[in-house]
């Protein structure tokens, strides 16, 4: 009987982890770490995005996703809603980790969901700095105008509001309050 209870507990824990993210959900606190400095990435539309683009905003929300992650794809309409309702001084971008090999799939996903935000394909420096900290998808981080992390990463889909978009907007307000 004890073994059966333990098996049920293990299954419940595994299900809870699976509901929020694809991958290992170990969270890491990296406040103040310059993870988006000295980089230059190409966007899916062929533009260049670098640390200089961060300087125009007090805070940038960076959502990191892949084309094979169901949770990432499910939150795309909510991310567009966040993008449409960003407070002044805040930007939102995403990084499609497999965008170099799955560009057309990523473009189809964005088109199907009406997404108009910038999507970066990571360069080597982003892979070595920011993406080396990511253990699950989606992961969302917030950076200041110098590319330093603000607060803890959001591992998995944000929860806590009436909608996913509300939860992300709440995280933005929280991170804005943490800026000096």
In short:
With 180 residues, the chain is an alpha+beta fold. It is built from seven helices and nine strands, in the order αβββαβααβαβαβββα. It has helices spanning 2-20, 51-54, 70-74, 76-84, 103-112, 124-128, 164-178; strands at 22-23, 40-43, 48-50, 59-65, 90-96, 118-121, 136-137, 139-144, 154-155.
Terminal Cα span: 55 Å
* Portion in beta strands: 15-25%
Number of beta strands: 9
The ordered string of helix (H) and strand (E) elements is: HEEEHEHHEHEHEEEH
The helix tally amounts to 7
Strand line-up of the largest beta sheet: 3-2-6-5-4-8-9
Name the shape in a single word.
globular
Structural account:
The chain is α+β, with helices and mostly antiparallel strands and 180 residues long. Helices cover 37% and strands 21% of the residues. The protein contains 7 helices and 9 strands. The strands form 2 sheets. The chain has a 7-stranded mixed beta sheet. It has a two-stranded antiparallel sheet with strand order 1-7. The model is unreliable at 3-20 and 24-31 (pLDDT under 50).
């Amino acid at each position: 009987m004890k073994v059966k209870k333990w098996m049920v507990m293990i299954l419940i824990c595994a299900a809870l982890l699976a509901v929020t993210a694809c991958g290992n959900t170990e969270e890491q606190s990296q406040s103040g770490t310059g993870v988006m400095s000295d980089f230059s990435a190409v966007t899916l539309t062929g533009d260049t995005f670098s640390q200089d683009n961060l300087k125009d905003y007090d805070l940038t929300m960076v959502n990191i996703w892949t084309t094979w992650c169901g949770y990432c794809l499910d939150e795309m309409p909510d991310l567009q809603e966040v993008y449409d309702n960003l407070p002044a001084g805040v930007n939102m971008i995403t990084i499609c980790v497999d965008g170099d090999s799955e560009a057309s799939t990523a473009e189809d996903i964005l088109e199907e969901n009406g997404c108009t935000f910038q999507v970066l394909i990571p360069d080597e420096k982003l892979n070595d700095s920011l993406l080396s900290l990511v253990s699950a998808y989606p992961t969302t981080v917030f950076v200041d105008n110098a590319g330093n992390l603000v607060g803890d990463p959001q591992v998995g889909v944000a929860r806590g509001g009436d909608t996913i978009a509300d939860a992300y907007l709440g995280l933005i307000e929280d991170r804005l309050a943490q800026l000096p």
